[in-house]
Structure formats: C-alpha cells, structure tokens
Amino acid sequence: MPLADSALDSHSLRIVQALAEHGSITAAARALGYSQPAVSQQLKRLELRVGLALVERVGRGVRLTEAGRLLARHARTVTGALNAAAGDLAELQGLRAGLVRVAAFPSASATIVPRLLADLGRRLPGLSITYVEAEPPEAVALVRENRVDLAITFSYPGDLVDPHRDSAEGLSVTTLGRDEVLLVVPAGHRFGDAESIDLGDLAGERWIGGCPRCRGHLLELCERRGFVPDISYETDNVAAVFGMVGAGIGVAVLPTLAIDSVGARSGVLIRPTRPGEYRTLHAVTADGAIGVPALGETLRALASLTVSAR
C-alpha cells in the first residue's frame, strides 16, 4: 500500500537524519534543540505513519533499522534541498540570515579561518557560521554526510591518500591556491646562509615528522632526492617542532600556514626548498551548493582571502 503524501514531512526527516549522524536519541535531540521525549514521540508517530520500525533497541541505546537507514539517506537529499531553498530566500532578504557550517584542518584554524569569520562577520552580521576542525579525509566525509557545508582541505602532489579522488566523487572541489612547504633548520646550520636548500643535501640529518599525511609527503620528497630520511622524532605540534629544531636535534619541513599558525620563533631558520615544494588548498562542497547564497558568498570570501595571502 503506497504511503500517503502526509506520511513524511521535513521535521520528521530532520530527526531521522540527526539520529543517523549522532547515534542516539539523546544526542539527536541535543543537536536539534528538542527534548529527548519529544524526539522519541516524533519517531513513534513516524513509524505508525510509514508502517515500519525505524529504530531498534541495542543494549541501552538504539540504532536505525534498514528502513531507518534508507530514510536517512533520502533525508540528506531532502534537507539539502530545503537548505538551498532557505538560502535562496536569504538572498532575497539581502543575506540578513543564513547558516554555513565549515570544517578545516588545524593550521587553517589559526590562519585562514579567523580571517574568514572576521570578514564575514563584519560584512554580513546576520550570517551564522559554525566551525569544526578536521583533517582533510574526515572533512570531505563531513561534506558528503551533509554535516558541514564547506570543507577547507589540502593535498600534496603525488599524495597516495589524496582525499580529493574517490572520496570526493560527486562533490565539488575548487582549488584555492598553493601553500609553500619550507625547511626549518637550527640557527647556525651549515646551510643557513643559503637562499634555498636542496633536500638531498640534508640526507644525513635527523628529521622531525609531523602528521601522518605530512610524514608520508616527507618520505615521498626524500625518495625523489634519493634517500630515506631518518625520522627520529614525531609530533603534530608545530610549536614542538620549532622547539626541537631550535634545540639542534633535527630538521623539518612545514607548510607556510603551519609556520604562520605559531608565529616567529627564535633559534631557527626558515628556508625554501630547492626545487620549491608546496601543497594545494581546496574548498570542498556538495555539487551545486555554490548556488546557495550564503555558501556562495562564503566561498567568494575564502577565495579572496587565500589569494591575498599568497
């Protein structure tokens, strides 16, 4: 028997989507700003209307049934379309309202993102922006799951785990620009007077590795220069990298944004690599999402900021 037109509504679909994203009725209710009993009652009424169980008990919690998961998949499409419609109306209101959810990697959190938020807040005070920090693969997944609208990401040339290949299929990926990768060596280093340094000249040095993807890029760079780096120390903390280099216990490569995120440090020298190395910055959104006025304006502001920072 076909469902009545009134069986499904946007309110119910948002609840199912929130349950899929957050994994429990309590968390879904918190995310939506409702009480837990209200969400439970809404789910029960929806199950009666569709004639299928949408959630099942697992221990003290619940999980979506096959029917619930199917509905959650459609909910992402429907809520995306509703958000686009709301965005179009916001355009008619002169962008006096609107919501854009942003994710970006850690070094962007201290550099690009504050400038973006300040610029939008100054020009469009009615626009609401939420932000979560995530590495590129996770950020791309958040866009696909409709948990954020915009992911600021990066990729390295030749990166074997580039998050902008299969994982971004069907999404829109816009290139924002390049982030130069630089060498960090101790003050007084034998190549400290050079304008740039060939990585091959540092084959005998001890190296300080960064995040897993950055370490992978370092290995790939050194392989191209004919050696395997002695990565004796590993840390994701950029300030710690500067401290170790300044103490003379190793050298490192860092992207410019990472260097800018902690500011100038004494006891170290920063030099370009030879040949120049870089990573590429991207903006990832749902396909066609740039047509949503609030998101389109955010993308234009982001592009302007990254161009001016080069």
TrEMBL record:
PANTHER family listed in its UniProt record: LYSR SUBSTRATE-BINDING, TRANSCRIPTIONAL DUAL REGULATOR HCAR-RELATED
Keywords associated with the record: DNA-binding, Transcription, Transcription regulation
InterPro entries hit by this protein: ArsR-like_HTH (IPR011991), LysR_HTH_N (IPR000847), LysR_subst-bd (IPR005119), WH-like_DNA-bd_sf (IPR036388), WH_DNA-bd_sf (IPR036390)
Keyword Transcription attributed: yes
Name of this chain's protein: LysR family transcriptional regulator
One Pfam family recorded for the sequence: HTH_1
Family statement: Belongs to the LysR transcriptional regulatory family.
